[in-house]
Write a structure and sequence with these properties.
The structure is a homodimer.
Chain A (H helix, E strand, L loop, with lengths): L2 E4 L3 E7 L2 E8 L1 H9 L5 E8 L4 H9 L7 E4 L5 E5 L9 E6 L19 E4 L4 H10 L5 E5 L2 H6 L1 H8 L4 E5 H8 L4 H10 L4 E5 L5 E4 L4 E4 L13 H16 L4 H18 L13 H15 L2
Parallel strand pairs in A: 1-4, 1-8, 2-6, 4-5, 8-9, 9-10, 10-11
Antiparallel strand pairs in A: 2-3, 6-7, 11-12, 12-13
Chain lengths: ~300, ~300
């Protein structure tokens, strides 16, 4: 089975206490795809401008990511400039956002991609996320990520979307903001009531909380001593989660636990380097090696 | 084997979003003992004033706690008045502290208690903690807890003490403050270098991180939906940890993991009620029942 991801493909300028990098390949769909490709065929749906470096496109293709539905349009690519200050790696300070071609993005999907059963709506305007859903057949598993911007400014669009999806991924701040509950168990229950059966709350260095009607569980994060750049960690996490569930072909307690262990492992690689420096070269053998360390770390 | 705990026995006034209570039996040694008594004979070393309610003393005795070395002295008992505001249950706002008889406390220890092999120095002035150690034979396992006040004002006393102990328990803020490292793995390593072989960092609702030279592990906390009063949660945690290790009779990876699962379970009961409302009535069967839930919650 394969997997469609809608989101952004961006050029990132990032500054962290470890240094600064310009024109990194970034965006929610790119980071997601770089992680999910380890498990399954990923079909990426996004837009870039004509100024987008060919090397990044070649790179994604070489990683086996299907770019049939990557639109290349006249104009400038989406750019994000952000900084992480001091020890707070959980919150990026956005210095600049240039939407460029993203301003008028209507996702398109090749005919053969419309019946793909697994879809992830990575972080992008919820109205665009809804547009993609309308292009698709009846996906078996729809995952959704969002961000504070949309929770604030497009709450009603987001709430309509919540009714259509199965799995919602949010960080703790977003979960609290959307649910208006501080306690994360209460927040998870409130989000469940908005529609999705499966609620995944990411707590950064503190790991993850999973909630559904039948069971709940939690894992700490893999301990990373030298965080370099957490940009894309959430998308990398989601890529591992959805990638594994797609490969497994079924969603149950066992596959969900395993998927979240993979997700946790993959995001720990992401934060150890700028952009995709650590995730792009990864092989499944390396992922499994660290996953076994993680399992030992969290075993009862 | 049995266990000595040195710390405070206090009268607490607590206000939380769930309500307010006056003259609760509190203090680091009381909460610790109420938890550790489920595993082993606990010998409490502390001081109270003549004003201390007899009902609290009777209550501790009824719970099987040995009060031979509880000094009752002329003067006022130690009182703490604190508040938890909004959703921040991790930080108590201290409104008032009346030291009373604690001002001139020199711990004493009955002869038969001096050879007890396990000791926990619960939160109290580090100079008093050192005094107790000098009264003891050669304890096999010495645990230590402290707080921001002593880290700020008695850092050198605390550092001397760190050289004498085996197991250090701190919350994340204290661990960062004493080690001057923000990353918790780095903090744990720095604390290890100060002396203790075993470092336990409590992260409140995010669980616990354990570090020693041979291995590391981490658990999330038991998910509590309705936090009522977290006062004493850290002491209750330490009581479960040291209580179980004392009962187990040996310190190794297996007993440490199990001890921290018990500790996590016990502190989850503590936060669900004011003072010891939830921990005092606990039976081992109830603890094991919740522990099994926790194990299911965190299983890989």
């Amino acid at each position: 089975m394969s997997l469609v991801v809608l989101g952004t493909v961006a050029l990132d300028h990032v500054k962290t206490p470890s240094g600064a990098r310009r024109d990194l390949l970034g965006g929610s769909a790119s980071h997601f795809a770089m992680s999910a490709r380890l498990f399954t065929q990923v079909h990426l749906v996004a837009i870039v401008g004509e100024d987008f470096p060919q090397k990044h496109i070649t790179f994604l293709k070489q990683k086996g990511i299907d770019l049939t539905s990557l639109t290349i349009e006249k104009g400038k690519s989406f750019r994000w400039k952000g900084e992480y200050r001091g020890n707070d790696f959980n919150t990026a300070i956005t210095l600049a956002t240039e939407l460029g071609v993203l301003m008028n993005f209507s996702p398109r999907l090749a005919r053969h991609q419309r019946q793909i059963p697994n879809v992830f709506l990575a972080n992008i305007d919820p109205d665009i996320q809804m547009q993609l859903l309308r292009l698709m057949g009846r996906p078996r598993l729809i995952g959704l990520d969002s961000m504070n911007l949309w929770i604030n400014h497009k709450r009603s669009s987001l709430k309509r979307l919540m009714k259509k999806i199965h799995l919602f991924v949010a960080n703790d701040g977003e979960a609290r903001q959307l649910s208006q509950e501080h306690n994360l168990i209460k927040a998870a229950k409130a989000l469940r009531k908005m529609g999705p059966s499966y609620i995944v709350i990411k707590k950064g260095e503190h790991g993850v909380l999973f909630y559904c009607d039948q069971f709940m569980f939690s894992f700490p994060a893999f301990p990373v001593e030298h965080v370099v750049d957490p940009t894309g960690a959430g998308d990398t996490f989601a890529g591992g989660l959805m990638g594994y569930l797609t490969k497994a072909g079924q969603v149950n307690e066992q596959t969900l636990r395993r998927a979240l262990i993979y997700a946790t492992t993959l995001s720990s690689f992401n934060v150890e380097g700028f952009g995709m420096a650590k995730t792009a070269p990864l092989t499944m053998a390396q992922v499994k090696q660290r996953m076994n360390k993680l399992i030992k770390f969290i075993a009862v």
